[in-house]
Amino acid sequence: MLQKLFGFDPAKHKVKTELMAGLTSFLTMAYILAVNPNIFSALADQGMDTDAVFTATVIASVIGTLVMAIYAKMPFGLAPGMGLNAFFVYTVCLTMGYTWQFALTAILLEGILFIILSITKIRSLIVNAIPTQMKAAISAGIGLFIASLGLKNANVIVDNEATLTTLGDITSGPALLCIIGLLITAALLIYKVKGAMLIGIFVTTLIGIPMGQTHLNGVIGMPPDISPLFMQFEWHNIFTLDMLSVVFTFLFIDMFDTIGSIIGVMNSAGMMRKDGSIPRLDEALLADAIATTAGACVGASTTTTYVESASGVSEGGRTGLTAASIAFFFAISLFFAPLFLAIPSGATSPILIIVGLMMFSNVKQLNFKRYTDSIPCIITLFIMVMADSISDGILLGIITYVVLNAIARQWKRLNPTIVILAIIFILRYLMPLLKELLSQLF
């Protein structure tokens, strides 16, 4: 049964090893159960139920990871992705001004498109069209975005009229708790403690009790009602240009985040084929796409494969049984909602900073000596952080890449797909001007 369901081979694998690998991966991923409701609390004024976000996060993680276990038979855990959740809240809703229902609709459409792309050659066409340097810059830029988000959420960095931002009061409140949590979590990572980030969150939460930052109202309880988020879609905007832009950005980030995570984990575990190809990659990508679509239905932000799965793979996890055990532990956590929802921003912000650092490490892949690469990459990085917009960073970076390579007459570096994408992005920025001109003429 295990062999048929999860690709488990008794001659090569051990049940105990696979289960322990699943527990290890869960411990490194479980921080999302505290971080996600905290991030979405910024939309509480718009009527988004933070408690329901916790339940949606768990259900999306369970569904996605089970699909990965049974269909792809791979040892990867899935959950709502970091960066994608921030893009949902801070770019689509708070910057662009759309409702959270609009964003959930975009995620549903993105998931459906990802399913279509995963069963056709279009996916590989888009993947291969984006230069390696730009992929690295996007990942690094999202890392900076997440880290800055963590600093802002804990009031370590605050608004300033003269300088835009400045250092907050780090001697008290959430800022001090964040610094303490960052030091604790960093120490755990230095000593390679399993589940370092989750342990760091809980230790920091306990420290927050005497500081007046943590307000604990129990540990175990029934899961919060998911009905405020279930199937909450906004259909009348699906044919707008902004919806197209948001859907494409979700799709783009999800696709490359998933591919990057799978490649990284498989490579570190020595599971890649000799020719560099990845076994069952198509199945893994389709599982990710199904997870995103199902997650949108229950009210979760884009569900994606977690690079933290490497922790379980390093413990010997090799089959879908590892993923199934990850899903099992996520399901149990559903009944610990009071504990996870009591965790303050000062305890989750250090995790955002550390995860951001891990993603920013991709900056080492950039070639700063070639200006046709480095300038678009730097624009991508800094627009994401300074403009608080992941989508604008990606769009302007690709436009700059195409324009600079055209100026340098590096035609071989410009494939038709990326040129078409750049033209679409340029039209996206020119659309307000075109609308104004048309209104004046007619």
**Could you report the average pLDDT, rounded to the nearest whole number?**
84
Shape, principal axes of CA atoms: globular
Binned strand content: under 5%
For the report, how would you describe the main beta sheet?
A: 2 strands, antiparallel
The count of β-strands is 4
Q: State the helical fraction.
A: 55-70%
What class do helices, strands and sheet pairing give?
mainly alpha
Low-pLDDT stretches: none
Q: What is the CA-based Rg, rounded?
A: 22 Å
- H/E element sequence: HHHHEHHHHEEHHHHEHHHHHHH
Record the strand order, biggest sheet.
1-4
Distance between the termini: 69 Å
Describe the structure.
The protein is mainly alpha-helical. Strand 2 (157-160) and strand 3 form a beta hairpin. The radius of gyration is 22 Å and the shape is globular. 65% of the residues lie in helices and 3% in strands. It contains 19 helices and four strands. The chain has helices at 2-6, 15-29, 32-40, 50-72, 84-93, 100-118, 122-129, 132-153, 173-190, 196-207, 241-269, 281-298, 309-314, 320-333, 337-341, 345-360, 371-386, 390-407, 416-441; strands at residues 78-80, 157-160, 164-167, 303-305. Helix 6 runs antiparallel to helix 12 (281-298) and helix 10 runs antiparallel to helix 16 (345-360). It starts with a helix and ends with a helix. It has a two-stranded antiparallel sheet with strand order 1-4. The protein has a two-stranded antiparallel ribbon with strand order 2-3.
